[in-house]
Design goal:
Layout (H helix, E strand, L loop, with lengths): L2 E7 L4 H11 L11 E9 L5 H14 L3 E10 L6 E8 L1 H11 L15 E6 L3 H10 L4 E6 L1 E8 L3 E9 L7
Antiparallel strand pairs: 1-2, 1-7, 3-4, 3-6, 4-5, 7-8
């Protein structure tokens, strides 16, 4: 049974910059996880339902508008979870709405924690390394347009692999 995820990919050059930082701070999972904003967390799904999932994602994308994301500064989920992340200062509500739309129908999954869009930069590390990531990327900033989202499938050897893109519709002019 494959494990899938749905996420907004962070574009270049920031995707590589953040992934390389994650590896440099000692996060051994960095090379297996493309830089992203999660919409649906890792979820096991039966192969026979994959076509239904893709159809659902097509429908969500057809109804969604493109939007801007502005990343700036860092945050953490500690002490609840050993995670340091880059924060969204714009695009939060659009990510929340998109995640809610995606997590219906065949992807109606229970979340372990309340949804909070973010970009992980350090995960499951000792506190001094999490502190370092929190401090060193406190001035990180970038902006980009989100034109779609991706379906990822986990491969034990290669990590998370994007398998399909779902383009959002451009906002309509009034």
């Amino acid at each position: 049974m494959p494990t899938i995820g749905v996420a907004v990919a962070i574009p270049e050059p920031w995707a590589t910059e953040l992934q390389e930082y994650r590896a440099a701070v000692g996060d051994s999972t960095a090379s297996m996880i493309p830089t992203h904003i999660t919409l649906v967390p890792p979820t096991e799904i039966d192969d026979v339902h994959l076509t239904e999932v893709e159809k659902h994602l097509e429908e969500v994308a057809a109804e969604g508008d493109t939007f801007c994301v502005h990343l700036r500064g860092t945050g953490t989920f500690r002490p609840v979870s050993p995670v340091v992340f880059v924060t969204l200062v714009e695009g939060i509500s659009q990510c929340e709405q998109l995640a809610h739309a995606v997590r219906r129908g065949p992807l109606d999954v229970a979340l372990q924690y309340p949804y909070h869009p973010h970009v992980t930069i350090a995960h499951h590390l000792e506190d001094p390394l999490l502190d370092r990531a929190f401090e060193e990327l406190a001035t990180f900033e970038c902006e980009f347009d989100v034109a779609g989202f991706h379906l990822y499938v986990h491969d034990d050897e290669r990590g998370w692999q994007p398998t399909r893109d779902f383009p959002l519709q451009a906002p309509t002019e009034s």
